[in-house]
Amino acid sequence: xxxxxxxxxxxxxxxxxxxxxxxxxxxxxxxxxxxxxxxxxxxxxxxxxxxxxxxxxxxxxxxxxxxxxxxxxxxxxxxxxxxxxxxxxxxxxxxxxxxxxxxxxxxxxxxxxxxxxxxxxxxxxxxxxxxxxxxxxxxxxxxxxxxxxxxxxxxxxxxxxxxxxxxxxxxxxxxxxxxxxxxxxxxxxxxxxxxxxxxxxxxxxxxxxxxxxxxx
Length: 216
Prior knowledge:
By secondary structure, the protein is of the alpha/beta class. The chain has two domains: 2-127, 3-Layer(aba) Sandwich (Rossmann fold); 138-215, no CATH class. 30% of the residues lie in helices and 31% in strands. The protein is built from five helices and ten strands. The strands form three sheets. Strands 2-1-3-4 form a four-stranded parallel β-sheet, sandwiched between helices. Strands 7, 8, 9 and 10 form a four-stranded antiparallel β-sheet that branches. A hairpin with a 5-residue loop joins β8 and β9 (194-207). α2 (45-57) packs parallel to α3. The longest helix has 15 residues, at 144-158. It starts with a strand and ends with a strand.
């Protein structure tokens, strides 16, 4: 059996997390599965981290597997992926997109999704990208991309109602201030041959196993 932890990242997006929490409880209660369920609503990165670590380190005698469902956006998903990947106590990771951009969820079809699908999920391995001591589940950015995200998050902190519009406004603010960054990039190609590039970059973007660089 699988023990489930639903992380409701209430700092993400504009969703009604109280209503969704009730829907989860009602669904599991209706199907006599409340013993499989834990729910935590987080308001900060520390809340999320503490809740996930506690869940990973807790022994549940009647369960042989664990899964954490990230109910939030890409930021919440990324944080939970890092916690699981860095822990000696492993668990599966599921996503219920409730954030602003929800980029990773666009790889999947949620059109027929229901909470019953979380009872016995099909677990499979995926690749992770590791940059220094951090993991990325699908994308990492530096330069222009990272500056836009940083600016968008600042706007969302002040004006949460902007939602996805914050990213468009951030682009307009940053695009005229682009400066090259000095970077050294090393990676292994499909033949495990180490390749290194060092130059001044305007934009560096990595998606799964695709690397694109522009240098001047």
